[in-house]
């Protein structure tokens, strides 16, 4: 997957600059959405417990405190390992999807190499299903990995695909998903609607990253916002319900304010500082003799 040229990882999350030589100015769409807290405690615990049960060293470790600690240490970061593996797989699948779009646009591409990387990891089915979806929906790409900017609210992001499908302009976001027990691709997170509507509300689109050249956003009236779940058994496109777009846009706007105020609070300095006890209170004097203070 091509990394957005203008994106930078900062202490405040991923941010975008206006040009290759510029400084980061605004948060990415995904950084803004990330301000919404997600409770993963149950999932993390489940992954750790599963790692212990599946660890082949467990039978020999029973009865040995030292060996059980080794198994426990390995299980403690099971969720992080799964997350990293899923992210790497998502990058490989996204890269293939991008290369398919570039080939259709007649631009230089590495589609064969991207497919080979999937094959090396036993993931060719993702490419096969994506090819079927692409042909079935008769996708006609207009742009891939298009960076957009909204100065009014203050954010930027990179859209996976802008294309015409069925004669309508669509903004498309790919999500690599696993498979359920009944062989269906897993459902999308509703947060994808925020991601899509933020792209729709862009004001500018990148023309030249090196020169920092931008043009007015051409697709603010796109007819369809599609979250596309790419799986090994199928690819399913989901339309963002037009009736809910205002609510999800307002939520995104509010999360953008949370990001701004959180950054200001961090930059303001330490929130707490130690303080010592107050100085001793002087004892009152009666007829020249100090009296005992009862506190």
TrEMBL record:
Residues 269-295 are annotated as: Disordered. It comes from the Bacteria. Residues 283-295 have a biased composition (Low complexity). This is Cytochrome. It comes from Micrococcus terreus.
């Amino acid at each position: 997957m091509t990394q957005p040229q203008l994106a930078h990882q900062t202490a405040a999350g991923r941010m975008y600059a206006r040009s290759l030589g510029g400084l980061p100015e605004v948060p990415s769409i995904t950084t803004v959405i990330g301000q919404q807290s997600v409770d993963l405690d149950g999932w993390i615990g489940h992954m750790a417990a599963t790692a212990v049960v599946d660890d082949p060293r467990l039978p020999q470790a029973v009865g040995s405190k030292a060996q059980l600690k080794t198994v426990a240490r390995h299980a403690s970061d099971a969720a992080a390992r799964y997350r990293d593996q899923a992210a790497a797989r998502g990058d490989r699948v996204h890269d293939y999807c991008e290369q398919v779009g570039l080939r259709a646009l007649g631009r230089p591409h590495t589609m064969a190499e991207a497919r080979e990387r999937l094959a090396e990891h036993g993931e060719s089915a993702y490419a096969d299903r994506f090819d079927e979806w692409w042909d079935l929906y008769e996708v006609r790409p207009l742009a891939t990995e298009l960076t957009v900017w909204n100065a009014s609210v203050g954010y930027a992001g990179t859209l996976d695909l802008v294309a015409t499908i069925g004669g309508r302009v669509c903004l498309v976001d790919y999500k690599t998903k696993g498979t359920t027990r009944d062989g269906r691709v897993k459902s999308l997170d509703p947060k994808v609607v925020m991601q899509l509507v933020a792209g729709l509300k862009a004001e500018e689109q990148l023309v030249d990253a090196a020169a920092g050249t931008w043009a007015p956003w051409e697709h603010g009236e796109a007819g369809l916002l599609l979250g596309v779940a790419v799986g090994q058994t199928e690819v399913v496109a989901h339309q963002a319900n037009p009736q809910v777009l205002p609510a999800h846009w307002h939520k995104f706007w509010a999360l953008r304010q949370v990001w701004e105020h959180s950054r200001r609070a961090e930059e303001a300095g330490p929130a707490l500082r130690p303080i010592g006890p107050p100085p001793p209170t002087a004892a009152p004097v009666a007829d020249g003799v100090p009296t005992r203070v009862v506190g």
